[in-house]
Write a structure and sequence with these properties.
By secondary structure, the protein is of the alpha+beta class. The chain contains 5 helices and 4 strands; from the N terminus they run H-E-E-E-H-H-H-H-E. The protein has a 4-stranded mixed sheet, covered by helices on one side. Bound molecules: zinc ion.
Length: 151
């Protein structure tokens, strides 16, 4: 896979020194997502403050793309309202499907995943944390951990 070096550095940095990694003592939302094609298993934990995501954490095993994407997502979404999360998710998905979107400055790390759009199998890796989070938010009232498998 050929990625621009700067972008590769940002991805590797998030992979090697992840932000917000580790299961928190308590969470309002717990969701796990798996991407069997690559072997990625990502867990997403959200602490809510009303309509806002006070804290987003993740854990799991997977390739550099999936774990770096989870680390970036956790940073970008902290403190955002559910509505903002939906909007940011749509932008990110559009970018990963090769659309020419302009991301807000605070999302610049996410832009490093843009080059991954050329590799369809890897796109699933980058989207896995987002799909998992959305599944968790959609099942907020479940009262237990929910899981989703992408194919
Ligand atoms: Zn992967």
């Amino acid at each position: 896979m050929q990625l621009n070096d700067l972008y590769k550095d940002i991805i590797l940095d998030h992979y090697q020194s992840p932000h917000n990694r580790g299961r928190p003592p308590q969470a309002d939302i717990e969701a796990e997502g798996s991407n069997p094609l690559c072997g990625d298993e990502v867990e997403i934990y959200v602490l809510l403050d009303g309509e806002r995501l006070q804290e987003v954490r993740f854990d799991g095993v997977g390739c550099a793309i999936s774990l770096a994407a989870a680390s970036m997502m956790s940073e970008v979404l902290e403190g955002k309202s559910k509505e903002e999360v939906g909007n940011i998710g749509e932008l990110f998905k559009a970018m990963m499907h090769g659309e020419d979107v302009i991301l807000p400055e605070e999302m610049e790390d996410l832009e490093s995943l843009k080059g991954v759009a050329k590799f369809p199998l890897r796109v699933k890796c980058a989207l896995l944390p987002w799909t998992t989070l959305e599944h968790g938010l959609a099942n907020e009232d479940a009262g237990h951990r929910v899981s989703i498998e992408v194919d």
